[in-house]
Design goal:
There is one protein chain. By secondary structure, this protein is an alpha+beta fold. It is built from 3 helices and 4 strands, in the order E-H-E-H-H-E-E. It has a domain of about 70 residues. Strands 1-2-4-3 form a 4-stranded mixed beta sheet.
């Protein structure tokens, strides 16, 4: 990403609210996030219906099991996310998730 040669410190996903878009976006941006950065996805409760598992469910399952399983992302990309996300905080009745990236 030429627009961010020094990496990203904070990313806020306030885009389409479609699960596969949200999951693709974190899969793309995770390699551009600096250490100790924050990744935020908002409006998880308003995800538009698709055949893909909701991002909220994917992240809650990852938090519970330690395994990132996404129908949108490759297993290699899921492993990268597992290795980079160090903590989660779901806020406002699961409407927002804040993740610390390392």
């Amino acid at each position: 990403m030429d627009a961010t040669p020094n990496g990203i410190d904070v990313a806020i996903d306030d885009a389409s609210h479609v699960a596969d878009h949200q999951q693709f976006t974190i899969g793309f941006l995770i390699n551009h996030m600096n250490k100790e950065s924050l990744y935020v996805i908002e409006d998880l409760h308003t995800e538009r219906p698709t055949k893909i598992d909701k991002t909220l469910n994917v992240l809650q399952n990852y938090r519970k099991t330690g395994n990132m399983n996404s129908e949108v992302l490759s297993k290699d990309k899921c492993k990268i996310i597992e290795n980079r996300i160090k903590s989660f905080k779901f806020s406002l009745n699961n409407k927002i998730v804040v993740m610390r990236v390392e």
